[in-house]
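Why show two proteins at once? Because comparison is the fastest way to build intuition. When a single record is shown, students tend to memorize it. When two are placed side by side, the eye starts asking what differs. So, the first record is below.
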Amino acid sequence: MDASSVAARKQPVSWIVQLLEWTTADFTIRLSTGGFIPWGEKVFLARDLTYGALGELPTFEDGIDSQTTRANITIIPPDPTALAAVADRAHQRTLIQVWDATLDGDTGYLVGEPDLLFRGIVDFPRLVISETWEVVLECGTEESLLNEPNEDRRLSNPFHQSVWPGETGLAYVTGLGRKVYWRANTPAGTGGGGYSSGGGGGNSANQY
């Protein structure tokens, strides 16, 4: 944490607030738990007139063992139009960040640099309909993608072009019919060939 921010928190009058920035292809929302807060060229508001206000932020904690950090962030839209915009599934895997910040109690301005609490991506939205309309953004860290299985990834021309459209480097390559395992051990007894991330039962003479 920034040294001046730490020093300010030891003073009798200081406020600790959180800042949220959510960036999508359609909009960028900057919200705070402490009202109007300028930070450089950015301005964080208690309520965005179009998309609403922060409802709840979780306690951000590190993941345990093979788990990565997860966070549920609640946004309260002002109307059905905003609800549909915020909950649009097109925003999946968009960047969302939360900072912890210190405000001077007399001026209301930031002291030092905010401390990054969470940097992640939106996994999926969940609607809560009661007295208010709420959108709970279930978020994970970018590192969580490393834990996803890659059964759909193959050393083949169709998959290669799905990543790099028009790049025909594998179009006329032979010997790609073998099963290739990405970030997984080759199952025992499957015979030779293919890349292996370790431990598999392939014939090393046929390895690339």
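Second record. Ask yourself what differs from the first in the token line.
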Amino acid sequence: MRKNIVAGNWKMNTTVPEGVKLAKEVNDAVAAAKDLKCEVVIGVPFTHLTAVKAVIDINKVGLAAENCAAKDKGAYTGEVSAAMVASTGANYVILGHSERREYFNETPEMLKEKVDLALANGLKVIFCCGESLELRENGTYKEYIKSEIEGSLFHLSADQFANIVIAYEPIWAIGTGKTATSDQAEEVHAVIRGLVADKYGKQVADDTTILYGGSCKPANAPELFSKPDIDGGLIGGASLKADSFMGIVTAF
């Protein structure tokens, strides 16, 4: 049985004290909630990992870094390795976000290296994929998403792939206020699950969690999460306030 997951992605927001306060609020809300139907994860800046880990119950709230380096260690000033992330007590890392691909020129081959290092250090990976408005409109978005997944994930064994969560993020719906319809999101989620089935078989595909990552809010989460192939969300802006984030968490 695959997990339902709602993961926050704070991006470059909050100072450490602000982040600790928000993490405490989320942790307390999760602890007080009855019969949650999903796992909760918060993705925080590197600077926050240790301080946030100290104020959450890691058994109830997972902790993710927002990136890691494509190198194990060495003279790479400013980079943060997967081993460093794991040493903070984090148990997830978000890789391949569209902002990383666009602003920092991350390629499928680079992300393949990051995935390998993350898994080698015991981290679960939330792997992002998705298309631009141009690709959506010219009809090549399915092929593009396939190339992102194949290029960075399909060298893994089935056992390794069990530690991968895929997040579909239509780039045209991130921070724009636009949201893919539930049918549009479900279509792509089903395509992704089909790609995994073709590579690893139906059982692995059925066990793979696929999240929606495009302007998901408390108002539209119930409809999105009702779709058979949408297993939760990777939440940006709405994760920066505990009440809106929990409104999504409780949407299942």
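One difference worth noting in the second protein: The longest strand covers residues 39-44.
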